[in-house]
């Protein structure tokens, strides 16, 4: 037996010291900490459930009975609506369909002719259109800013009346450029849907210098009713004049031009015009 010899102290690991203060670090047992957190969460859930399940008794207001009423209400629950209006509003909210389908806009559809009532007055429409005198007692209604000149590019609707009779509505296409098309077919893309129009007997001639003009001016028949309705109610319109060799002259109509189709059509119908 060796006297005066003591056991060496257990060596501390470098990981057991905080570098900033060089003091031993208290290590937490992970399983123990997880269990503590789980119990704390369970206690909170139990407390919340208990608060919703607590009930209280109250005395009956009737003078004929001194007993407590065996009716209970849940503490913390919403009180009943105080009025019929409140109850109806609550029921409307509870019964409302909150499905996603409600908020998805309907897919666009191809426009077809509809006999809608004219909501504008004659004066309101006349203020936004031109009225030209053709001859004694005969006038022509057409959009502002356009003329019947062959030497201007234009596309519009117009009609003539003598007051007693309204002539059929007409579509007029004026093409003026230095490259001849010799078009007969006209294609339209209206709000993404295709419409076709056939110019039966376009007129053609020579303008100044190298310029040429081509003109189609014909009555709107029943077969063009869908096209006319779409032109007057569209959000956007792209027009293609198709040449004899397949070349296409493309034009995007302005909002004003689309609005003009609507104004002329409504005035035509208001004055007694019909498309048959």
How many individual β-strands? 12
Oligomer: single chain
Binned strand content: 15-25%
What is the string of helix and strand elements?
A: HEEHHEEEEEEEEHEEH
Structural class: alpha+beta
Query: Share of helix among residues?
Result: 10-25%
- Average pLDDT, to the nearest integer? 82
Key attributes of the depicted protein:
alpha+beta; 6-stranded antiparallel β-sheet
Question: Would you kindly provide a brief summary of this structure?
Answer:
The protein is α+β, with helices and mostly antiparallel strands and 276 residues long. Helix content is 24%, strand content 25%.
Walk me through this protein's architecture:
There is one protein chain. By secondary structure, the protein is α+β, with helices and mostly antiparallel strands. The chain is elongated and about 100 Å long. The longest helix is centred in the N-terminal third of the chain and has 24 residues, at 30-53. The chain contains five helices and twelve strands. The chain has a domain at 122-270. The model is unreliable at 5-10 (pLDDT under 50). The strands form three sheets. A six-stranded antiparallel β-sheet has the order 3-4-5-6-10-9.
